[in-house]
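Bump. Still looking for MFS transporter structure tokens.
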Amino acid sequence: MKISLNKQSILLLSVNGLFVLAGALSGTFLNVYLWKSRQDYSMIGWFTISQQLALGLTFWVAGKWVKEHNKMNALRMGIAVTGLFYLLVLWAGKDAVNYIWPLGIVLGTALGLFWLAFNVVYFEVTDAENRDLFNGWVGLLGSVTGIIGPLLSGWIISRLKDDQGYRIIFTISLVIYAVGVVLSFFLKKRKVQGRYEWLEPIRRLRILHDPWRYAVPGLIAQGLREGVFSFLINLLVYVATTQESKLGQFSFITSSVGLGSFWLAGKWFKPRFRYIGMLVGSVLLVVVILPLLWKVSYSTLLIWGIGTSLFMPLYILPMVSAGFDLMGSSEESVEKRVELVVLRELSLMAGRIAGTLIFIWILSLSTNPSTLTWVLLALGTAPLLGWLSMRKLLRPANKRAARDK
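Sorry for the wait, here they are.
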């Protein structure tokens, strides 16, 4: 049977693509913009933590709005507030580094609103059969925007004086966010179902043998890596080259590789491959960090970036799909899908904050460049911990898929 996506899934992908494109244009260089005003890794780390705290709190609080009222308005509000964030950055200019916490809170709130609504709608318009296909397309669109956005932004920034290039790309992002809001009105209003249970994430973890007790540690492990890697990779490329155009080139190359790997994964990576695929992907994501132990340069960073783009689908697709499959595993889970999306994000948030705090703490002890590399290697092993936690959830999916073949 041919697996395909319906019109609502395609429209949701389009809204996601515009949101990610605007983020790729501006977000890729946001931390570089802050870094140029103050060369402080810890400052960037605290900016990340402020985002994650706001994002997690927004998921939990806005869960009631999304479940009991109009989740599409939450999606639109998330896009609009993200645009507001870039307006504030434009207004603050070089003084933005003095407002790390309020700016981080605004951005985290915006991302929380968008991704909470997106994840719930994503669950509703997909099923266990086409979820890997949808995730593959999400990765594919992310790679395409990663090719176009940073390359264009780097080209604009490198050809204009002072901060003029940054102001132009932030403005372009504002326009794209506005288009995304308009497009979102073509998504159907989703049905409201049930009352929001504030403490459902805690209750779920108290249930003995509940599968979420395996999923949550895996998600925390995923967050451990993401928290630091989300900002440090691009920053290291800029520090090594001091050229925005090189960062654009780096993103172009790595995203081009990701384009192919996510396309292949979306086409061929079936549920029965999740168990072994995630293990192989986790190991290879650690292996590609090893060249940095020799030297941190543009070349070794490029090896790392290409390897990560190549092997990430093997790791991330089983993580995402298995987690969302749990939300559809029973009638009760479907009814509590909003609360379970909140549980998923709170788990990721906990890991991201923990990883970033470890990063800040170690840098407070030593600022030696080799220290950064060892921190990356240590946090880079987190996918292996994720597989160890998730393997019991992946193996049954493997057996069921084999029987249905």
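Residues 7-184+207-404 form a domain with the Growth Hormone; Chain: A; fold (CATH 1.20.1250.20).

Edit: fixed formatting.
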